[in-house]
Amino acid sequence: MTPAHEALLDHLMAGTCCHAPSGRYCETGRALWLDYRAECVVDGGKETMATVRHQSPDWADEIKGRALILINAAGRKAA
After folding, report:
1. Cα separation of 42 and 71, whole Å?
2. What's the rounded Cα separation, in Å, for the pair 28 and 31?
3. What are the residue ranges of helices labelled H in 1-79?
4. Whole-number Å distance between alpha carbons of 22 and 25
5. What does the alpha-carbon distance between residue 35 and residue 46 come to, in Å, rounded to a whole number?
6. Closest residue by Cα to residue 8 from 25, 40, 38, 33
7. Which of 15, 22, 29, 35 lies 20 to 30 angstroms, CA to CA, from 58?
8. Banded pLDDT at 16 (limits 50, 70, 90)
9. Main-chain dihedrals φ then ψ at residue 78, nearest 5 degrees
10. pLDDT, average across residues 57-62
11. Is residue 56 packed enough to be buried (19+ CB in 10 Å), middle (13-18) or exposed (0-12)?
12. Cα separation of 13 and 24, whole Å?
């Protein structure tokens, strides 16, 4: 489990107004979810980004941007 995933789960389990299955998040929950998905893209590359574009088209560009920031911070080459 990544730190971003753990932070998201901790937030969800705290009984916030967030409801992950329906994609309903408070501002903090949304930010944690975006960070988690960005980490998934960094780890999974283009295939994961394609899945993100299919599952969350409204948020795909934001997730891609966050993933690129993570990649650049780590000094890795983008997929």
Report:
1. 7
2. 5
3. 3-13, 27-55, 60-74
4. 9
5. 17
6. 33
7. 15
8. confident
9. -65, 145
10. 97
11. middle
12. 14
- Residue of 75 and 56 predicted with greater confidence: 56
Joined together, the tokens standing for residue 69 give 């920031």
| pLDDT exceeds cutoff 60 at 78 | no
CA atoms within 13 A on the CB side of 11: 21
Instruction: Provide the 10 A C-beta neighbour count for residue 35.
Output: 20
- Per DSSP, 24 falls in state B
CA 55 to chain centre: 12
Half-sphere exposure of 57 (CA within 13 A, CB side): 1
Which residue type is seen at 70? Answer: L
- The pTM is what? 0.88
